[in-house]
Amino acid sequence: MSYLIAPSILTANFLDLRKEVEMVNESEADWIHLDIMDGVFVPNLTFGFHIIGQIKTIARKPLDAHLMITDPDRYLEEFRNAGVNKLTVHYEACTHLHRTIRQIKSLGMDAGVAINPHTPIYLLETILTELDLVLNMTVNPGFGAQSFIEFSYHKIRVLKKLISETGSKALIQIDGGVDMTNIRQLADAGVDVFVVGNTVFSADDPAGVISKLKQGGK
Ligand code: DX5
Ligand code: ZN
Fold this sequence. Notes:
The protein is of the alpha/beta class. It has one domain (about 5-215): TIM Barrel. It has eight helices and eight strands; from the N terminus they run βαβαβαβαββαβαβαα. It has helices at about 15-25, 50-60, 75-80, 95-105, 150-165, 185-190, 200, 205-215; strands spanning about 5, 30-35, 65-70, 85-90, 110-115, 135, 170-175, 195. Strands 1-8-7-6-5-4-3-2 form an eight-stranded parallel β-sheet. Strand 4, helix 4 (about 95-105) and strand 5 form a beta-alpha-beta unit. The longest helix is centred in the last third of the chain and has 15 residues, at about 150-165. The radius of gyration is 16 Å and the shape is globular. Zinc ion (ZN) binds near residues 8, 35 and 66.
């Protein structure tokens, strides 16, 4: 059972951000998940290009940016220039999603699409083979430390089947409410990449929690 862990710094201690990023660098984590929120697409605000650029100067893991913003087409190049490696936009925020995905890839980044809990998997069918990543939200986006939405297991299984049927190479990523008690069952259901925020950054030993998560939790 092998899968990737992408700690989300949303609930990290921003007064010690260098220390938090260096903890992730030294840990068994695979990516660094950056939750970018505009206060419009979701009822919360986070950080922008300046902080991403600063993180990039010390990060030794790929930067995985999750854009919870309206009209992300406005900023694709800025995110690439700030050092983002994987850029995920929300299906619900894009009018011309196919063109957006093509632009993300032309800028040299991996392209992902995130879908909210209410958005059905089948809407991704025609674009799935263009994607490197599908981020299936397992909470309603905007905040860390929320409860996992159990219906997500069904969506993961539907997505895994659709990826196989279309021949897509997209990884299945989930985000929100992942912890020691559900990660193994979720990995068995087909998840390739786990975004984990509060479970990691609320722990006394975050790097130890990341290692345990990599080994199946519990
Ligand atoms: C929520 C964000 C998630 C969050 C992680 O909108 O997309 O990445 O920070 O959630 P928890 O804290 O539940 O792991
Ligand atoms: Zn996220």
